[in-house]
Every structure is written in C-alpha cells, then in structure tokens.
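tool_call: predict_structure(chain=1)
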Amino acid sequence: MTLKSKVLVVEDDAGIRQSLFETLGALGFAVGEAINGEEALVRLRMVDYDAVLLDINMPGMGGKETCRRIFQSYPQLPIIMLTVRDEEADVVEALDSGAWDYITKPFQIGELTARLRAAIRRPGTQAAKPEIIVVVGDITLDDTSRRVEKRAREIHLTPKEYETLRFLIEHAGLPVRHEVLLRSIWGPTYGNEREYLRVVINQLRKKLEDDPSHPTYILTETHIGYRFRGED
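tool_result:
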C-alpha cells in the first residue's frame, strides 16, 4: 500500500480551507487543517507532516511569523506560502521567513499540486552529499550543518537560497543554465520561471558579496544562467 503524503493546510478562510481539503484529498494527499498559526504549531507537534500550505495573511500570529517558527522547529519541512500578490518584496519576505516556495492566489490546482509534490520529493533526494565544501575566497559551506560562513561569520540563508548556493558551488567554475537550476532546486515541472531565480540570486548577492552590484562570487552568464566563481 502506498502511503499518502501528509499536508497541513493553514488558512483562516473556511471556504478556501474546505476546498483545499476536498481537492487535495481527492488527489491522494492526507490533509490536515489549521485555522491559524497557533493551531498549526500545535498540530505539527502531533503529526509528522510532509509539507505545509500556509496563508501569508492571517489574523493573530500571521503567516510570516508562523513560517519563521515552523522553520526554526522543523527546518527540513517544506513550506509553501499562499500569497495574494507576487511583487518582489512579498516574495523576498516569504522566502526569508523560511518558505520553500510560494504560489499566488488565485492559483490553478494543477500548479499547486505539482509544487507540493516537488517540495515533498526534494528532501529525500539529498543523500550522499559531501560533508564539507570549502569554497574559494572567504566563503565556507558546511553541508552537514547547512551552515554558510563568510570570513568566519555565519550567514543566514533561507532554504531556497541555501539549495541554490549549494548547487552553484557543486558546479563552481561552470555556467549553470537557468532551466537546469530551476528544475534542480524547484522541481522537474519548472524551467521558465526566471523571476524566481532573479529574486533568490539577488538575495544571495546581498548576503555574500562585498558589493552586490559588482559580484565576484555569483556571476551572471548572459542569456545562459549563473556561474559560481571557480578556483583562482
């Protein structure tokens, strides 16, 4: 018997919550519900969920604070944020709170389920990784602890930022095409969403580069993708 993936839907709108419960249930997911962030944290202590669908606008604790708390307690649990707008500031805030991905309302259920399945599959694909990767220059990535340092100072990265950096470092010195990076980090159904990459790359540069407008580590390969600086 195939085990169903368990998804916690955190949404204060009863209509949307019920619709997601019924639709995702019919598509083979085991769905749990929470009406706010406080209830979500309680349910996560009771059930080992595989993913969380989290509304960004909720009364009380709020979606972004809920996301931060979930990420702190369950850093490997993928969180997909449900947002009303897809402006860059909202996307950055969602990802910086610890979200693995985001989707804008109104959304197509096919897109949502594809992103859910990609997020759920992703944590299980990370076996046999090198324990420590030391990078040229001042940046060190410790893959066991998922810790990134620059000049011995820890740099906080969101899950998407970490996975993107790690993939680029693994291919240091080589150009990585946009679609390859998207499919490797976001999942096989992605490939054309270059704005996702632009947001994450911009955030990585702000955190890692001395001068983000003139990067020396994460380089742009025009019309191709990105390249992490190789050995000097």
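agent: The radius of gyration is 18 Å. Proceeding to next step.
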